[in-house]
Amino acid sequence: MTIDFAGATQTGCLWSFMEFANVNTGGTNGASAVGQAVTNNGDGNTRQVVTLAAFGNADNATYGAFGTPGGAMIPGSGFTEIHDAGGTAPTSRFQTEWQAGNDTTVDAGQARNWGGIAFEIGAAAAAGGTFPSWGYQGGWW
């Protein structure tokens, strides 16, 4: 995996890599693994929420990632936190979470400036759901 900013100077970076088991890997380059991906952002007066459309399959799972300028993150209701990491200079924080069910309201907990992305993860035909098999987080400043 390569993270590349095309020569643009960065003051910091946080990342998370996840692998899920029992995922639909059909389509061009495994495109069926993601049923949908939606982003959202907000200011310091809003809770972190990214809203997905109705899921295409009852066996699909939900995954979300949020970034904010500092402070521990709290996973949304019904979600299991995978990563909660942060750094300094500038202070930043990110959190990832998932759940095996169809949850169209992907949220995390703080009212701060934030950005987030949520995914519908496509289940393999005979899988009966998806689950994380491993994850890695890191960062540099």
Search tags:
single chain; 141 residues; mainly beta; five-stranded antiparallel β-sheet; two-stranded antiparallel sheet; 51% strand; globular
Describe the fold and architecture.
With 141 residues, the protein is mainly β. It has one domain. The chain is 0% helix and 51% strand. It is built from no helices and 9 strands. Strands 2-8-4-6-5 form a 5-stranded antiparallel beta sheet, with no helix packed on it. Strands 1-9 form a two-stranded antiparallel sheet. Strands 3-7 form a two-stranded antiparallel ribbon.
Summarize the structure.
This protein is mostly beta strands and 141 residues long.
Produce the secondary structure layout.
Blueprint (H helix, E strand, L loop, with lengths): L12 E9 L12 E9 L4 E5 L9 E8 L11 E8 L4 E8 L5 E7 L2 E8 L9 E10 L1
Sheet/helix structural class? mainly beta
Task: Report the radius of gyration as a whole number of Å.
Answer: 15 Å
Number of strands: 9
Q: How helical, in percent, are the residues?
A: under 10%
First-to-last CA distance:
19 Å
- What is the count of distinct domains? 1
Give the averaged pLDDT, no decimals.
Answer: 84
